[in-house]
Automatic annotation (TrEMBL):
GO terms for cellular component: plasma membrane. It is a multi-pass membrane protein. The keyword Transmembrane applies. It comes from Cryobacterium ruanii. This is Autoinducer 2 import system permease protein LsrC. PANTHER family: ABC TRANSPORTER PERMEASE PROTEIN YPHD-RELATED-RELATED, AUTOINDUCER 2 IMPORT SYSTEM PERMEASE PROTEIN LSRC. Its main location: membrane. Signal peptide: none annotated. The chain crosses the membrane at residues 31-48, 60-79, 91-115, 127-150, 180-202, 231-250, 262-280, 287-306, 312-331. GO terms for molecular function: transmembrane transporter activity.
Length: 347
């Protein structure tokens, strides 16, 4: 008589894998904001079918593009347990410098415009990072100061001057008009930015270090992570993306001047937080920040489409921010409890 081994329970194994995969999806921080975005679009479409028309979709993507790029940069900073309040001012000064270059240097290649804008953004972002890391002053205080400094410099430089769509080459303005597969060119640039930064954050040592710093800066130092260099990198990268957004802003809108970008920083922080980036640092993704940016701009467009007062638009955004912070806090408490239970079992 032969004694055989029992066949493996492949069905049970597959079921456990499926349930485990489903549980992982349900734990994604981006899931609630994604579902909220889908529900918002569906409900608005039912109320106004033109919302998802060809022009409606194009306007929706164009409105979100600048905010997406800025939210990605801001997410990198917030993940390190910092914040940059000066991004609106950086965008404004870069947008005005873009108009200035087109007028001062006729025929300048558009590639050079992009490089110059990103270089200026990198410089201003580096100043923020240097002051935060060297002076050891909270980023909230530092960037609140540079917000006004950069805005003041732009006001002094621009004065009453404004540059309009007619001051730029048609090919530059076409970035916001021409489409590929229904996507405006500047939106495709934003998507490429999200992909590149997401890969950097998830698959490179410096990107993972940013999460470690945000989780526990002192522990990160003990593990040999160059905290100062990494935080400076986050602020510099944020400046580069703010510079890119400034150039695209000059392409997207009809005029740039001294007030360009004013107040934009609060929308950007809101987009990152609503997208699942923990305001206390250490968790969240740039993809989530991009989805949060798309949700906030969609809220504005949706409520406008169904003729809701602007006050309610701002109130809803405020409620979303509070909900995101509460959800993050609850998630942290649950994680801490699980960790304590696990340690108790090991003992």
């Amino acid at each position: 008589m032969t004694i055989g081994t029992s066949p493996p329970n492949t069905a049970g194994t597959r079921m456990r894998r499926t349930s485990g995969g489903l549980a992982s999806v349900l734990r994604l921080r981006e899931l609630p904001v994604t579902l909220a975005l889908i529900a918002l679009v569906a409900l608005t479409y039912l109320a106004n079918p033109l919302f998802l028309g060809q022009q409606g979709m194009k306007d929706l993507l164009l409105n979100a593009t600048i905010v997406i790029i800025l939210a990605v940069g801001q997410a990198m900073v917030i993940i390190t347990r910092n914040v940059d309040l000066s991004v609106g001012s950086i965008l404004g000064i870069v947008a005005f410098s873009t108009g200035t270059l087109f007028v001062a240097v006729p025929g300048i290649p558009i590639v050079l415009i992009f490089l110059a804008g990103m270089a200026l953004g990198a410089l201003l972002g580096s100043v923020n990072g240097f002051l935060v890391t060297v002076a050891k002053v909270p980023s909230l205080v530092i960037t609140l100061g540079t917000l006004y400094i950069y805005r003041g410099l732009n006001n002094a430089w621009a004065g009453g001057t404004q540059y309009f769509a007619g001051d730029r080459p048609d090919s530059f303005g076409a970035l916001s008009v021409d489409t590929i597969a229904g996507f405006p060119l500047i939106t495709l640039i934003a998507i490429i930015v999200v992909i590149i930064v997401a890969i950097f954050m998830a698959s490179t040592r410096p990107g993972r270090d940013l999460y470690a710093i945000g989780s526990d800066p002192e522990a990160a130092k003990l593990f040999g992570i160059p905290v100062t260099r990494r935080v400076l990198l986050a602020f510099l990268s944020n400046g580069v993306l703010a510079g890119l957004a400034g150039v695209l802003y000059a392409s997207r809108f009809n005029s740039v001047g001294a007030t360009t970008g004013t107040g934009l920083e609060f929308d950007i922080i809101a987009a990152a937080v609503v997208g699942g980036v923990a305001i206390f640092g250490g968790s969240g993704t740039v993809v989530g920040a991009a989805i949060g940016a798309l949700l906030l701009t969609t809220i504005t467009s949706a409520l406008t489409a169904i003729r809701v007062d602007k006050f309610w638009q701002q109130a809803i955004v405020g409620l979303l921010i509070l909900a995101a912070i509460v959800i993050d806090r609850i998630a942290r408490i649950r994680t801490a409890k699980k960790l304590r239970h696990s340690e108790a079992r090991d003992v």
